[in-house]
Amino acid sequence: QQQVKQSPQSLIVQKGGIPIINCAYENTAFDYFPWYQQFPGKGPALLIAIRPDVSEKKEGRFTISFNKSAKQFSLHIMDSQPGDSATYFCAAPSSNTGKLIFGQGTTLQVKP
Amino acid sequence: DAGVIQSPRHEVTEMGQEVTLRCKPISGHDYLFWYRQTMMRGLELLIYFNNNVPIDDSGMPEDRFSAKMPNASFSTLKIQPSEPRDSAVYFCASSTTQIADTQYFGPGTRLTVL
Known about the structure:
The complex is a heterodimer. Chain A is mainly β. Chain A is built from no helices and eleven strands. In chain A, strands 2, 4, 5, 9, 10 and 11 form a six-stranded mixed sheet that branches. In chain A, strands 1-3-8-7-6 form a five-stranded antiparallel sheet, with no helix packed on it. By secondary structure, chain B is mainly β. Chain B has strands at 5-7, 10-13, 19-24, 31-38, 42-50, 53-56, 65-71, 74-79, 88-95, 104-105, 109-113. In chain B, strands 2, 4, 5, 6, 9, 10 and 11 form a seven-stranded mixed sheet that branches. A four-stranded antiparallel sheet of chain B has the order 1-3-8-7, with no helix packed on it. The model of chain B has no long low-confidence stretch (mean pLDDT 94). The A-B interface holds A 29-30, 32, 34, 36, 41-46, 49, 89, 93, 97-105 and B 4, 42-43, 45, 48, 56, 91, 93, 99-108.
């Protein structure tokens, strides 16, 4: 079964730090790589997504970097804040159906 | 728009009982997804519908699980009979015309099977 491998499983940073979460995927039906953010007791919500005709996309403090040859993409959070403490999921479209396959998630804690 | 609506938010039942989870997608969304989230297995896609038709149910774990979408504004996920290992948070999500596009998740139903 196709997988998306996400690391690290958990991450603790100080306020203002730059947490980086990495994902590796197998073959995909097309290039669409989203990141979802989930707060406790809530459903995941789309944070940022990239359709790589570019290698990087930035929205506010959040940046996706994409390396197509390596089949990897990562999320960087600049100037992280305690309010960014959440679980982050990457996802990639499966090669045969296009349905999104989610990574295992990274629990981020930003300390004040 | 109220977003994706799920009910109940919490369900506690005993092993062997039938459980029905409900979902109302965002109006105008053609795709509806059912996910299960556990600590061990993360976020798993169980089944998804396109225009009320089940497209891929390969993630449904067993025949005890079934899902229906009788119309564009309502879907159910049923577990019969329920088992303790079914305890999880079940999410419904919907999206517009493209399968790999923004999925809008509901708040989830936390199911506990005793």
